[in-house]
């Protein structure tokens, strides 16, 4: 009888030791696509190793929300797929109660995931590069799995200035940032949130306003710094009615409800892009500081 009990005890210990992060992903029931991609990239054996690992695991719905062409590209480019998956795995074990606002967590690819904790609701919302942690602390023998509601894409390989420069929809903003001499500031450690008007947003300005700004560096700087907020405010961190103080010194007001896209002042937020020193939030309208609104818009009509 004692021998049987010892055997059973050893079997239970071995079973517990074998409960790796890969096994946890299998038991969650929402991670079949992630598991498929992990096996395709051949990193499953690594994740079954000693670790420890913290896996930020997008759900099947998160992968389904990606554009079809992007998912097809990931599945056909093993290097790109591996980079994406390794960015979702931290090279340490961090439980949710050990996460702090603006904490940077190194990943297997060598880049950092930015953690934010927002008190816009109860309980507080935890995000990883803007993706909400919806099911934390799924413990494994070699780490922990935190389920997230989005795929962390694109992988943030550069700072905000580089992110603007590489985005075809933000070329006008990029030129304006350079003209105003803000490249060095927005390349700093931050973190910053940049409400980034698209090219189309600039084209919506009344005739002559953009040309006038580009000829007046002081006015241009005032307008651009009105689009920058200290801190990293991903969409889940924007509470309805929040006011955020900008680098220009005045505040912008957030509208964010369940039944409409989030807005800052009168501009709709159309996308968010994580960068190494903050986040870019693309908007469809240029924001005007209250003191400059009449001068820049109405006097030129």
Structure description:
With 301 residues, the protein is α+β, with helices and mostly antiparallel strands. It has two domains: 2-148, Roll (FAS1 domain); 160-300, FAS1 domain (Roll), CATH 2.30.180.10. The protein has 14 helices and 14 strands. The protein has helices spanning 2-17, 21-28, 32-40, 44-47, 60-64, 68-76, 78-87, 160-165, 171-179, 183-186, 199-203, 209-215, 217-225, 290-296; strands at 53-58, 89-90, 103-106, 112-118, 125-128, 131-140, 143-148, 192-197, 228-230, 243-245, 251-255, 263-264, 267-275, 278-283. The strands form two sheets. The chain has a seven-stranded mixed sheet with strand order 2-1-7-6-5-4-3. A hairpin with a 2-residue loop joins β12 (263-264) and β13. The longest helix has 16 residues, at 2-17. The radius of gyration is 23 Å and the shape is elongated. The termini are far apart.
CATH superfamily of the largest domain: FAS1 domain
* Inertia-based shape: elongated
* Assigned CATH class of the largest domain: Mainly Beta
What is the total domain count?
2
Strand order of the largest sheet: 2-1-7-6-5-4-3
What share of residues are in beta strands?
15-25%
Helix proportion of residues, in percent?
25-40%
Integer average pLDDT: 92
The major β-sheet equals:
7 strands, mixed
CATH topology-level fold name of the largest domain = FAS1 domain
Determine Rg (CA atoms, Å). 23 Å
**How many β-strand stretches?**
14
Secondary-structure element pattern, one letter each: HHHHEHHHEEEEEEHHHEHHHEEEEEEH
What count of helical segments does DSSP give? 14
Structural class: alpha+beta
Distance from first to last alpha carbon = 94 Å
